[in-house]
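Memo to structure team: turn this sequence into structure tokens by end of day. - J.P.
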Amino acid sequence: MKTAWVLLFFLSNICFAQRGVFNSAYKGNLSIEAGMSSNHYAKSSFSMMGNEFTFTLNNANFNQPYKGIPSPNMRDFLSNQYRFAIGYTVKRGVQLQLGLDNLKYQLANQRLNIDGYINPGFDLTGGLGGNFSSTNVEMDTIGFRFNSNSTKVISINLNLLQNLFRLKSRKFVLNAIYGIGLGALHTTSSITFGPAYQNELSGMSGFAAIAHGGIRIEFFRHLYILPNFSGGLLAQNNIRMDISDASQRASQRLWVSQMSINIGTVFFLGKKENCDCPHF
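Reply from structure team:
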């Protein structure tokens, strides 16, 4: 997080040295932001397929590995739930944004409800085997685990900026920002199931559809804090399970809601005549 503050401070100092009346919603503005997030996951069915098994965990609970938004700590920042975004205002009040969200979630400790079939003798780590029809099994008994240690949402967003309040000097501005986005998922996960413990596996795993809204609280024309709320669908179609068996995969449709706190800077690139935007 320290690196992010240094970058934003450097960019804002460049902007403060410019002349002119700056409007943060004008065409040609570039914004960069970074922050931390806290996520809530709805109940979801989790399906697993392979040559030796086909079964589903019904309405399972998933949660993040910690409570609330973690405190910024650069030493473990990239291992937590974070958000980066860079946006360009294509016309007044309309922004295109490239975002990167890192999410972490796990199968909560619970009583599992299972439908499907597992070849007896396959699951040496937990002992699951046979036919299941809405069968309840305690996770502590079988030792089954699933952890998404990193699910990255790489998204393109279309945002609208709407002014709510501003001082005449524009030293303090409130802008509402809301939009929609589509993205790809890259998941690094680990599963305790099968003939042996598996190492973490990574790969492209699906797509996401999201919507969000927040209040951009702007100071001194170029710096802002953005409390943001978002929600959407993670369509995990192909979570890798076993590096030696490509037939094994897991899938789910997981709804997520997110609260994030972001810090950012906004400035104008290039030169433009008859514009009150400052430029380099």
